[in-house]
TrEMBL record:
Residues 81-91 have a biased composition (Basic and acidic residues). Keywords: Signal. CDD domains: M23_peptidase (cd12797). Residues 81-100 are annotated as: Disordered. The keyword Signal applies. PANTHER family: MUREIN HYDROLASE ACTIVATOR ENVC (PTHR21666:SF270), PEPTIDASE-RELATED (PTHR21666). This is M23 family metallopeptidase. Residues 1-39 form the signal peptide. Residues 124-225 form the M23ase beta-sheet core domain. The keyword Signal applies.
Length: 237
């Protein structure tokens, strides 16, 4: 009776051992399966992450290129705008400078022109005559400095009577002759339209008028066609 009781006692212990082993095996399988699933899941997640990173890099590069292109375009537009403005400013300055030239007298009648020949002149006429009454105000045709002033043609000879010569910034000289009165002195600076004299009939003159010349030097013999010159600076006579 004692032996039967002992065998009965041992069997449950063996069953428990087997159960524990089986449980341990099942646990290992479960754990291993979970690890495998974890590894598989990690690999699958890495691929979309890499693709996403590459896409972001391409997008950033494209954005940088677009930004650089936009900056280059703005620079080109600014340069073109600056060049256009510079050209317009230069044109305005030239126009303003040209507009500052004026006729030396108002309410006149044109008589002898440049290049006219005749017994009155030893050579062809060197200027443009403006017929005006004696005592008419004579003004500077353009801003400049008086380099000649006085009788005897201001040094150019008695044929001019009382005369004035003004030097201008463009290298040209204007001359005013047959004056009844000289109102400026050598070295004096005058502005466009400023009164410099009164017209007259002095020197070799057949009647009251202003003899006007444009010269390349202050002296006789360097005259240009004054009418053509005034037209070139937008002054009609």
């Amino acid at each position: 009776m004692k032996r039967a009781t002992n065998q009965h006692t041992i069997r449950p212990s063996a069953f428990r051992v087997r159960g524990a082993v089986l449980a341990a095996g099942l646990g290992a399988t479960v754990v291993l399966g979970a690890g495998t699933a974890f590894a598989s899941s990690g690999t699958a997640a890495a691929a979309p992450l890499a693709a996403s990173t590459t896409a972001d890099s391409v997008a950033q590069q494209a954005a940088a290129q677009a930004k650089a292109a936009d900056a280059a375009k703005k620079t080109a537009v600014k340069k073109a705008s600056d060049a256009k403005k510079k050209a317009e400013d230069k044109k305005k300055a030239a126009k303003k400078n040209a507009a500052s030239w004026k006729t030396p007298v108002k309410k006149y009648k044109l008589t002898a022109s440049y290049g006219t020949g005749g017994a009155r002149w030893a050579a062809k006429h060197s200027g443009q005559d403006f017929a005006v009454p004696i005592g008419t105000t004579v003004t500077a045709a353009h801003t400049g400095t008086v380099v000649k002033a006085g009788p005897n043609g201001a040094g150019d000879g008695p044929a001019y009577g009382n005369a004035i010569v003004i030097k201008h910034s463009n290298g040209k000289f204007s001359q005013y002759a047959h004056l009844s009165k000289v109102n400026v002195k050598i070295g004096e600076k005058v502005k466009t339209g400023e009164k410099i004299a009164l017209s007259g009939n002095t020197g070799n003159s057949s009647g009251p008028h202003l003899h006007f010349e444009i010269r390349t030097t202050p002296n006789y013999g360097s005259a240009l066609n004054p009418a053509a010159f005034l037209r070139s600076v937008h002054v009609s006579i």
